[in-house]
Amino acid sequence: MGDVKRLRYVPQVNESQTTQRKRKANRKTFTETNVLRLPVSRQQHFVWDSGTGAVRGLCVLVNPSGTKTYFVNYRFPGSKKLHYKKLGRVGEMRLEEARSAALAARRLAYENKDPNADDSSRSDAFESVFENYIREEQVGRKKNKSAAETRSVVLFNCAEFKPRAVATITYREISQLLAAIRDGNPEAGRRPRPPTAARIHAHLGDFFGWCARERTIKENPMANMPSPATVVARDRHYSDDELRAIWLAADQLDAVEGGYVKLMMLLALRRDELALARWTEFDSRDEPTLFTVPTERVKMKAETKAKKKPAYRVPLPLLAQRIIRGLRRDGEEAVFPGLGAEGLKAKLVPLRAPRDFKLHTFRHTIATYLENSGRSEWERGLVLNHSGSGTVTGGYSHGYPLDLKRALLTEWAKHVERVVSPAEGVAQLR
Questions:
Q1: Residue 406 within any structural domain of the chain
Q2: Residue (of 298, 402, 282) closest to 335 by Cα position
Q3: In terms of domains, do 22 and 55 share one?
Q4: Domain count, the chain
Q5: 171/210 same-domain check
Q6: Which of 91, 117, 143 is the last residue of a domain?
Q7: How many Cβ atoms sit within 10 Å of the Cβ of residue 216?
Q8: In this predicted model, what pLDDT tens digit does every residue of 143-186 receive, in sequence order?
Q9: Do 190 and 98 contact (CB within 8 A), yes or no?
């Protein structure tokens, strides 16, 4: 069952009525007893707290059914828009409690914090709205497999925004936050992180754009905001000595983790394309020669994926076949059960793998090797499972050069064999 959206009560009045209604506002000096006996009419109406001890903005909404509910209204600094917060049912909440809650809500609004932050179904707090964005936009519409990672990195780095009313966050505040991430604070032990600042800028830009489209905010506060940092394209690739060090370190892990690292080195796959593999995605469980990455794990724009429904086929070199056969477990559907791919670096580096180890660097390494071997950009893209060469023929060609891809991956696997085991011979590798 999907989430149910609750509509916030907002009085519907036109401009010609506003001044008149302000003059005729129904005010009453509330007491614990008279709020229970407020008169009921055919139309829903407010009665406002007044007199000694009254709290500005506190009112009772009287429904034709006879139910009476405490509300408080408030505005954020610099805004003319009026917001309402439901406090509780008259009779269940004492007047003194309602007045205290109303004061607290208006104080939060004055501090640019969302008084509805304690109610996720009504809140406009940054954290609550961002959770909706992840669920509805990143997961729901875009089918983004990295949505959980996006959620984590943004909420961690934007912690100071979490309780804030999203509509009150300004261009200047966002710019200052991004600059602080970029420049760090050596005295506080925070190192400069330009790539992270650029990444957060991109995520927040998409988020606030979504908020504006959904009318959660009037306009995008990040409009025309430049990226806080220029990120240099990654050019890191492993040397042959580093490949050997990683392989030998993987030998010291358990079979699942070690096998995963070695296959990532051999096949140039993205992390989850392989980490979430099932035995049904291989052409044979006993003698596998072909692995197919299903559509849901293919990296591609949601609209293109829905139209093309791509599935990447990965022919397996002999060395990869031997490693995969060693992973078979009776009764297991997952090829890598219990794998924690995010924690592999912490295990490999102490075993003499490069200190800046990243699984993604294998893809750069394979592409660099093929380029140095005279292979074309299109051939390198084929091995890396890129969606197309970028030419007009991409939309007209519907074949798949499986034999060519097998030859390219076999060429790379033989290079790895020579690097990793120059003396012992490939029969020793697993």
A1: yes
A2: 282
A3: yes
A4: 3
A5: yes
A6: 117
A7: 15
A8: 887 888 899 999 999 999 998 889 889 999 999 999 999 999 98
A9: no
Question: Do 79 and 136 reside in the same domain of the chain?
Answer: no
Give the gyration radius of the chain's Cα atoms: 30
Locate 313 and state its tokens.
């086929």
Q: Residues 40, 185: one domain?
A: no
Q: Residue type for 406, please?
A: R
390 and 250 assigned to the same domain: yes
Secondary structure letter of residue 72 according to DSSP: E
Beta strands 312-315 and 27-28: pairing type? unpaired
Token pair of 70, please? 């405490």
Residues of the chain with pLDDT under 50: 1-2, 4-7, 13, 15, 17-21, 389-393, 424-428
Domain ranges, residue 158: 126-214
Give the integer Cα–Cα distance in Å for 212 and 137: 13
The CA distance from 410 to 418, in Å, is 12
Inter-residue contact 57 to 73 (CB < 8 Å): yes
Q: What would the two tokens of residue 283 be?
A: 């052409």
Domain-located, residue 282: yes
Q: Which residues have C-beta within 8 Å of that of residue 96, sequence separation ≥ 6?
A: none
First CA to last CA across the chain, in angstroms?
A: 47
195, with CB counted inside 10 A (0-12, 13-18, 19+), is: middle
Q: Which of 315, 319, 283 lies closest to 404, judged by CA?
A: 315
- State how far the Cα of 426 lies from the Cα of 410, in Å rounded to an integer: 13
Q: Which of 117, 151, 183 is the last residue of a domain?
A: 117
CB 156 within 8 A of CB 202: no
**Residue length of the chain:** 430
Q: Rounded CA gap, 42 and 44, in Å?
A: 7
Give the model's pLDDT for residue 331: 77
Q: Are residues 416 and 345 in the same domain?
A: yes
Residues 271 and 400 in one domain: yes
User: CB–CB of 349/355 below 8 Å?
Assistant: yes
Question: In this structure, is residue 235 part of a structural domain?
Answer: no
Q: Name which of 384, 341, 412, 369 is nearest 420 in CA terms.
A: 412
Tell me the helices (H) and strands (E) count for the chain, helix number first. Answer: 15, 7
* Greatest C-alpha distance within the chain: 95
Q: Is 299 part of a structural domain of the chain?
A: yes
